Amino acid sequence: MADGLRERHARSCRLPVGGRCSCKGGPTIEASVYSKLDGKKLRRTFRGKGARTAAKHWRASALGQVRDGTMRFPSPMTMGEALDAYLLGMADGTIRNRRGDHYKPSAVRAYRQAVEVRLRRPLGGKRMADLTRAQLQDLTDRWQAEGLSASTIRNTLLPLYCVFGRAIRRGVLTVNPTLGLELPAVRGRRDRVVAPADAAVLIAALTTEHDRAVWATAFYAGLRFGELRALRWEDVTLDTDAEIHVTRSWDAREGEIEPKSKAGKRDVPVITALRLRLVEHRLRSGRTTGLVFGPDGDRPFQYESLIGRARKAWTTANEKRAQKELPAIEPLTLHDARHTCASLWIAAGVNIKAISTFMGHASVTITLDRYGHLFPDSSREAAGLLNRFLAAGSESR
Q: Which of 55, 90, 198, 388 could in theory staple to 29 by disulfide, Cβ–Cβ 3.0 to 4.6 A?
């Protein structure tokens, strides 16, 4: 039909042989719209009472959506093909993360594991355009019933969020089935931090200068695990304006890699307590080039060995402290030490923008979301500052 609507009759209908339409419920009405962008017609069929009116309304709406580019011909790509294409793009750098940075090798491996372990079997053969939110909700509900943790379920869905988000942005799809999913809440523990005196005790209890230097750098400079492993003496200045220049990280399989993000490349000030540890470590190691931490200048330290020695040293120290009726020191991780560093800067009154830079965060928002609970009560502090300001103004009159 000229108006984009076409009657379709059943094979048993008598209309084609000169009789009256005998279709049960009347003929079906097919509405169609041509998409220049796809070079194809978009079709939808309506049945029953009011079919022609419904078809006209759909076609009028579809014409506007086609003109706006918000309606496209359904993609024939399967979820397996889409996921494989995304993984390939992550690995070769043609697909970047939302900050425009290359995905870290560890992130690529995590996404690939999620695809192979939990996504490919139930979803791989389905067309992207056919996947519904209800189907994904059923899948996540089944994972939860099987005992998967909330964080595992959310991490498993990350490749789907990325694939569908990219498809929507490129106009390949118009509906994102990952939106609005009801997911279990992640109830993780708050990152542990220790007081300045406790940090000093934990470092001093270690048995080698190498280990004391590693932990001091985590406590007082806040470097990430991979950044500690990749740190080179060429990136450390220990003169009057001592600084650590973070320029790389370390991946367990790939070796030296770029930092986590563009913000990961940064200069971190070296305080006196850390400077003394690093100077002593450099003198004992006899190296001024190559990797700062590790058995030599080429191989980084191993976390399992480092944490094993630390826990053994802290256990011995606690036995001695018990004899003196001193409180025990609690073991912690390098990640806890990094969080402690942020808490020390906050307690010292360092401004939030500087802390964000030193920690290598992509934005101040990340710093506030992670460490906002460590800042003093803002209303009390603001009132105190204003009271002191007004008092000083009155005294000057």
A: 55
Q: pLDDT (tens digit, 0 to 9) for every residue of the chain, 397 residues total?
A: 557 888 888 888 877 777 788 888 788 888 888 877 666 777 788 888 888 888 888 888 778 777 766 655 556 789 999 999 999 999 998 999 887 888 889 899 999 999 999 999 999 999 888 889 999 999 999 999 888 888 899 999 999 999 999 888 877 777 789 999 999 887 655 568 888 899 999 999 999 999 999 999 999 999 999 999 999 999 999 987 899 999 999 998 888 988 877 888 999 999 999 999 999 999 999 999 999 999 998 999 999 999 999 999 999 999 999 999 999 998 999 999 999 999 999 888 899 999 999 999 988 888 888 887 777 665 666 676 577 767 766 665 5
Strand intervals (E) in 300-395: none
Model confidence pTM above 0.85: no
In whole angstroms, give the CA distance from residue 197 to residue 42: 70
CB 201, CB 212: distance < 8 Å: no
Q: Which of 23, 1, 26 is nearest to 12 (CA)?
A: 23
Q: Token digits for 169?
A: 């942005």
In the chain, which residue ranges form alpha helices assigned H by DSSP?
51-68, 79-92, 105-114, 120-123, 133-145, 150-169, 196-204, 209-221, 225-230, 272-285, 303-323, 334-347, 352-359, 364-371, 378-395
Residue 254, CA distances (Å) to 40, 163, 169 in order = 45, 25, 31
Q: Residue type for 156, please?
A: T
CA distance 212 to 105: 29
